[in-house]
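lol so apparently i was supposed to do this last week
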Amino acid sequence: MSLFTAVEMAPRDPILGLNEQFNADTNPNKVNLGVGVYFDDNGKLPLLACVQAVEKQMTDAPKPRGYLPIDGVAAYDSAVKGLVFGADSEPVTSGRAVTVQGIGGTGGLKIGADFLKKLNPTAKVLISDPSWENHRALFQNAGFEVDSYAYYDAAKRGVNFEGMLASLNAAAAGTIVVLHACCHNPTGYDITAAEWDQVVAVVKARNLTPFLDMAYQGFGYGIKEDGAVIGKFVAAGLSFLVSTSFSKSFSLYGERVGALSVLCESKEEAGRVLSQLKICIRTNYSNPQIHGATVVATVLNTPELRAQWESELGEMRVRIKAMRQKLVDGLKAAGVQQDMSFITSQIGMFSYSGLSKDQMVRLRNEFGVYGTDTGRMCVAALNSKNIDYVCASIAKVV
Ligand code: PMP
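anyway here it is w/ 4'-deoxy-4'-aminopyridoxal-5'-phosphate bound
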């Protein structure tokens, strides 16, 4: 009998488990479309030139590493706030928006979840059906009951928007609604601008609490374009939360760079909210890391580097779109009868391919092509060398 005898083995993380299986696979043609990571056309994880430029500056003039303030690098927080709301926007100039540095987008979500739990302990959380696989567990771990709102319609290959509205309309006042600001993970289907207007209207009418998860700003149509959704919530006069991740947009996955922004009613209210966010941070990990946030802040606050970043991000975005088209064309050329053109109407890094669990398992076991059992494939891991093999493999299982 030991102290930990009663400890049960937790289930493996589905995506990380897939990675382990991929790493152990000896198939020389294997392709990992499981994990949500952008790879370049050579299958390499990019190290952006703008990031390297700042890191060179940092090693040329090394600085001591004292503790950061609880809310992180000040220049970072203000740059992220500008990115989220627009640098000259009213929420920024009025001082009623607050942004705190977070440990990745996940950290931003968790700070927000802890803050909301204290504010409204009995609120329920609604996430999309399906959603990023960590949303449910993250909000449950913060103490919330988590339910879902209708989102994906497999038969239609798109969003069940009527169902989504119906779910939101049925939610009790104060319900926290986690919305994917752009590039929905896992489906790749976003709602239209006109549909966003309707969501904003329901959120307002029902007095729901919007929590926008923006993990892919810039991967859809561009920084500003993808941020337009935030402007709709601002224009409606709502208060809300936004989590930001730079894991993908800066290819800084392991540096854990993210943030939480909260739009309040007034500057005075923002001060009170910030004081509470700091308590959530302080009691979890005291204060965040210097490196990644300094890199991102320097890029965002230096016009030439910022332009370079937007161009590098644009290259990633354009390459993903080109891969979507190649996938559609390649599947047709490989003999797939059904119309797969829906893949180009999806956006961001992922595609819900419509393949069944059995087909995904066959792809993995017989061809070494790894996606999740739900049929999700990371289009951002396709390249000019593996695309033909992936198309031929899919053609053999459908
Ligand atoms: N939200 C969504 C929708 C995501 O897809 C991800 C990352 N895959 C995150 C949050 C977490 O981002 P990070 O890795 O920066 O913690």
